[in-house]
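Dear colleague,

Thank you for sharing your sequence with our group. We've completed the structure prediction you requested, and as agreed, I am returning the results in plain text so they can be pasted directly into your records. Please verify that the sequence below matches your submission; if there's any discrepancy, let me know and we will rerun it promptly.
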Amino acid sequence: MAGATDIFDTGLIVGRFNPPHLGHSWFINQAAGRCRRLVVFVNTRDGETVPGDLRVQWLADLHPDITVTRVAHNLDTDWNDEELWAKWIALFRTRWPHETGPQVVFSSDSYVSELARRLGARAIVVDEPRVNVPISATQIRNDPLGNLGMLAPVVREWVETNHGLFGP
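Please find the predicted structure tokens below.
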């Protein structure tokens, strides 16, 4: 079991960040404080409201001391399918930028334990109830103009200009 003050050589966060918000930044900063090298995988698919390359660029600009990597895919998320799990793990391993690791996988969701196990890493759940920065990307997509205050300025500017792309 990882202690609250353990420092790891390599850590991983996986998410869509669609769009990235202040809760994501808080979470990334928490994980970065626990790792010498943190990698953030931004999962993307064609046709998403906020283009994947843009999300990667925003996160890289907002967090210059971490590695942000786009993971483009067309995989489903049926976690009861062993063949699908194998595809996800193979994809993540091809995108991993370091020789070894990750040692730890961070998430705000408890499902991270299975992903970490399959990567040979520890799982650390950070603020699952999201009390430190109470926002989700789903809330932003559902009410982009009502949640502008939860976005970094560069993301806020894009959302203000493109809010019509978001569904009801």
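Summary note from our side: The chain has six helices and five strands.

Kind regards,
the structure core
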